[in-house]
Amino acid sequence: MNAPLNADPAELAKFSELAHRWWDPQSEFAPLHHINPLRLEWINGHCPLDGLRVLDVGCGGGILSDSMARNGASVLGIDLAGKALRVAQLHALEAQTPNIAYREVAVEALAAQAPESFDAVTCMEMLEHVPDPASVVRACAQLVKPGGWVFFSSINRNLKAFLFAIVGAEYVLRLLPRGTHEYNKLVRPSELARDCRAGGLDVLQTRGMEYNPLTRRYWISHDTSVNYMLATRRP
Question: Nearest to residue 125, comparing CAs of 28, 17, 234?
C-alpha cells in the first residue's frame, strides 16, 4: 500500500489556480522574481553551480530552476502542482533554457528511487506549505550526495512574522495573494535546524531576507525573524 502524499490538496489547488501568472514579474509572484537573484547568488556562493547536478524541490513555475540552469547546472525541478510544472516546461521551451527538466513527483518518492543522485538540492519557500516538513527535509538529505549541499528557505513563526509576512504582505501591501501562508504552518529556524540535523545534515549558515516597502528593495541579512534561509551540507 502506497504511503499518503505529503501534500495539502488545498495548497496544490491554490498554486495551480495562479500557474499562468508565474512568469509575469508584475503578478502575485513578483516577490519571487525580486528575491531570485539574491537567492541564486547566495546558493552559488556556497557551491558554484556550473557543472553540478541540482534538484529543485517544490519548483513551482521554475523561477529558481531556470536561473540555476542558466548558471551552468543540470537541473531537475519537481513539484506536485501539475499546472505550475506545465508552465515551467513551456517557459523552458520558449526561453530555450539548457539542461533543465521537470517531473511531477513527490520528493519522498524520488528519494526512494534515486538516493545520493544530486550535488545540490534546493527547497525554497515550500516547507510552510506541506503537512510534514520534516519528511521533506529527510528526503532532501537522502537525495544529495555525501559532501553535497542542501538549501532551504521558509518563514519564521512569531508575532513579527505574522505581522510582516501575512498581514503586511498579503493584506496591506498585497505583495502576495491573501491566504498564501497560514500562521500555524510556518517553521521556526530552530525547528528546521533540528530536522536538518536529524536528517544527517550539518547546518553551516543561517541568513535572513528583508524587505523595505518604501524603497521596494530586498536584501540578505543576519535577521532571521521573518524570512530566512539555511545552508546545510551532508558530511
Answer: 28
Kindly state the greatest CA–CA separation across the chain. 53
Burial environment of residue 154 by CB neighbours within 10 A (0 to 12, 13 to 18, 19 or more): buried
pLDDT tens digit string along 73-87? 999 999 999 999 999
Query: In 71-158, where does DSSP find H-type helix?
Result: 82-95, 107-113, 133-143
The ranges assigned to domains in the chain are 9-233
CB 189, CB 206: distance < 8 Å: yes
- Model-level pTM greater than 0.85? yes
Three-class secondary structure of residue 13 per DSSP: helix
Q: What cell was used for 129?
A: 506549505
> Residue 213's beta-bridge partner residues?
none
For 18-43, the DSSP string reads TGGGTT-TTSTTHHHHHHHHHHHHHH
CATH 3.40.640.10 fits domain 9-233: no
